[in-house]
Every structure is written in C-alpha cells, then in structure tokens.
Amino acid sequence: MKSFLVSVMLLSGILCFAQESYQSIILKKELTEHANAVLRDESILVEVEDVDKMTVTTRRVVTVLNKYGNGFVRAYDFYDDGDAKIKSQSAYVYNKMGNEIKKYKQRDFKDQSAVGSSNLYSDNRVSYLDYSPMSYPYTVVYESEVQMSTTVFIQPFQPVDAYYVSVESSEYQLKNPNHIPLRYLESNLDSIQVEKNNTEFEISYAVKNIPAYKYEPYSPQISELTPKVKVALDKFSLMGVEGTANNWTEFGKWQYENLIKGRDELYSSTIAEITALVKDAETDYQKAKLIYEYMQGKTRYISVQLGIGGWEPILATEVDRVGYGDCKGLTNYMKALLASQGIKSNYAVVYAGDEQKDIDPKFASMQGNHVILNVPGIAEEDVWLECTSQSLPFNYLGDFTDNRHVLLIKEDGGEIVKTPNYECDINLEETLCEIDLSEDAFTANIKKQSKGIPYGNNYHIQGQKDKDKNIYYKEVFGNLQGIHFDHLSFENDKEQASFSEELEFTGKKFYTTAGNRILLPLNFIEPEIDMVSRDEDRHYPVEILRGFTNKDQFNFKIPEGYAVEALPEAISIETDFGSFKFSVESSKDDPDVLVVKRSVSVNQGHWPADKFGDFREFLNKINMLSNQKAVLVKNS
User: Fold this and answer.
1) Would you say residue 304 has pLDDT above 70?
2) What range defines the domain where residue 287 resides?
C-alpha cells in the first residue's frame, strides 16, 4: 500500500509539473516584454547517419501571447515522396493554465503543396497544424521526426529569427557517427550567453532567456542581429547526386558538373532563327539585347520543381519547345541562346527579395532561392538579366536582386560577385506640377519621370485597369480631396529604363482661408519621408538599404484678384544622411505664378545607434519644412 501511494504521489507530481510548465502565467516579465510569442522549449537533433541519410527530430514549445504571435507556432514540416519523409508528427495545445485542450496525431495535420500557384509541377509538400485559437495566451507543443536522403541542406541553429519573439530555452545538436567532415560558421553569439560543446565532427549549442528583439525603424534585417550557426558537410548528397566541396570554387564546380552541364543544347532550327535575328547587329551588346527580347516574347514563367528539378534547370530544348520554364530553366535557355552566337554568360544563384540578402561569401553551402544571368565582356560593366520577366528592360534588375552577393556557376568553379547597386542619384523621381488655383478648387497637370529602382516600382501602373489606376493615384494624392482624373497617359522608355506619367485632374481646394487671405500649403505632393518618433533607448544601427532623390517643382497659378503677401525663406540642409533644398519665389515670366522647388536626397548607408537622433531630426525636419505655407491676400 505504501509503495502504491508513493507511486501515485510521484505520478501526481510529474503531471503537475508537466501541466505547470505549460502555464502562461508563470512566464518571466523579461520574456513577455515586447513579445507576441515565447519559444518556451526547443530541441533540434540532427543525426547525419551517412552522406545520403539524415534524420531531424524536433520538439518545439511555443506560447502565443496575442493574435500577432500565431505565425510563430510553426508546427509544420516539409516533405516529398522521393527525398524526405515525415516519420512521426504530433501536436498538443494547452490553455493559459497549462490544461490540455486539443491533441493532434499525424493523420490530423493538413497537407498541401509547398509551392505557389505559379508552379505547374511540384512534389514538394508541407504537413501543418491547422489550429484557430479561441483565446490567448495558449501553448502548442509540436514534435516531429523527418528522415531525408538529401544532406546538402543542414538546418542551422537559429533560435531567434523574427522580431517580437523571446526564447526561454533552445537547444541544437548535430550527431555525426560516421565522422563526415563538417564546417560551421557562428554569428552574433557574443551578444548572448551560450553553452556549446563542439568537437571535430559534432556540435551542440544551448541558449536560455533571450528577450524579444523589438523592431526599431530603419534597423537592419533581424538576421544581421540575432545568433545563428550555419552548418555544412564537406561530403553531401542532393536527391541522390553526391558531391564533395568545402569552398565556393569547388561547390560551384560541383553544381556546374551535376546541375548545369549539358543542358544548354538547342535545336538547329532555333540557332538558325537566332542567327538571322542578330545578323545586322554590330556589337555583342546589341545581339544580347535582341536575343533577350526574343526570349521574353517567346516564354513565360511557370515553376517546375520535381525531384532534383528544384535545383536543376530543365533542358533548353524543352523550354524552347513548350515556351515556359522556371527561373532556372529560363536562365539556362537564355544562356544557351547567347552561346549560340558566341556570347559567354554565367548562371548566377541569388537570394531574391527586396531585403538584399547575400549568398554568404564566407560559407560555401547550398544557398539561394532564385537564378539570374550574368553576361560579362559586352559592356564596360557586366550585364545582368532577369529572365523570368516579360516586361523588364534589358540589363535592369531592380530591387528584386540588386546590390547583393551572388554565386556565379562556371565551368572552372564558383565565384562570388555582387550585383549592381542603384545609388542615390540613379534612384531618381522628378515631378513638374502646374496647379491652377481658384477660391474653391484647383486643376493640376503633373508630369513625372522615374528612373533606377523607382522605375521598376512604377512602370507596372501603365498596364493596370482604369479603375485600379484611379484607386492608385487617389492613394498617392491622399492629401488632396475630391479629385477627379480627366487624363492619364504614360510612356515606358525601356532603352533608358525611364517611366513617364502625365496626369490631369481637378479637386477641391486644399488650402485654408482666413478673412481675405489664403494660406497655401506648398507641398502639393507630400515627400516620401516617414515621420519618426523619438527613441532615447535605441539599440540597433540605422540602415538605409537604398538611397533616393526626389526633385519636385510646383508652379502655383494664384487665384485672380490675389497677390503674394508672404513667402517662406529658402532652405538648404546638408548632412551625412542626405540633403534637402527648398525655395519659393514668384516666376520671372509671370508674377501671378509661384514657383516652388524642393529636392530631397537620402543616402544609402549604415550608421551606429547613437546617430539615430540626428537621423530622426533630419527626416522630421524635411517633413516640417515641406509643410510651409505661402500667404496670399485679396486685392482691396
């Protein structure tokens, strides 16, 4: 009887402990401050059993504090029939008191394709927990075991990968009983307390009590701030294709030999067609441009990701036959078309997206999510081609792949280079506004030209439906009321990568009257500058990924019967962060026209946290000084 009671007490204690450990009310204040979710307990075990066999076991406990934390549960795993199989998968949901309210077995998880609707074929799938919370906070315990034959991708140790998520405990271990040579690269570990136990062939890390990273305006990407350990094997397998590499030269050569080589043959009829197309072109640059436009007109982007096809381009002859392909297939096809005319080019792997993520030059491993084409030697600087777009100009990348390290895959090995950087003076928007004022309304004619990154952001307007154009411009001119568009026209100069807009519209008066005076705001178009709040406790550096220049001129035709009574003084500001110039004067040709000139330049750059106050002052001063008014008085 005594033994039975002891057992019951032990069991009761274990259950109470388990239940208490999932209570939300016991969380430390430093873990809930600025947090939408708390990673309570994470354990990742990577077991590399052979070059082509790896098992990843995951246990992840997350407490979601509010609706903004739902996305951090991450109770899912990817798989495909030929490479990765989910051996087990389960989830338990607990309320704020730690009581279990839902249990999911593997068969209860939702299953769907892991790629978007632009994919024609894919065998990549995801099995995920579909849970809609009734109240907050709640806790999810997720456990899984995934076995895979591809070992070229090793899950990194990355306990924090987003703002507003704190970490109570996170552990990572890689076992490697066959002693396959491995490499790892640590970053940002000096900012936290970390326990590690690494040997030549195995590694382990553990961290505790990491407060949430609170987002700060104009701060770097979260990945540049948080702890991470990248891991790679020197001997690896990709969907049954084995390789050996420990530097970018070797890794690029392996990719060329196994993924690219021999896939660029073309039909003789296609070669003859291209030869005829470029016969009158005088330079390789002109030939390449003609071929690029031919490729754009002949193909469209549809992703195909079956088996190794997730990394290997489909044959150039197949793209030529069907007229579509993914980024790999279209880039390889363009490469083949150029090669048919003796023009050399390089398949280039990149991380695409406006955040400017780099292929890490210091760590050779399978990286990237997109492919573009590098064409050296046909101009003063390398030419770069985005082969998935049917509308982008020749040698224009835009903010999708600008200013970042990429991997060129060449016959003699890989090479890390950087894509073009669109600098402040290149990212130019120039606007001329003619505004005719009356006492209760206005008419306006606007001519705007965009170059550099703004070109890529704006040229799509031309192809929108009239209804969508009206909605777009009403948002752009959100400071103006009752506007009606009488005319919209556009010119897309792809030769110069320059997009022009011309608008004619009317609207209600945007100025105020005071007796016999008009107070006229001089910022007819508001500057594209954020108002930034004060932050006395700034932690992170200030970063501007892309600089820009806006030059605006507003010619105000003042109402009949009014004269200028007072104008603000001219202003010129120069700082490390950029410059601002503003002036207003009566036109020399017509004294009834006020000419307002405003120039704003914001520099690309990276500044320490203690410069944030100066940076904030610069931005807010631009907004304040742009809001100045002229005083018009009615003639007596």
Assistant:
1) no
2) 245-418
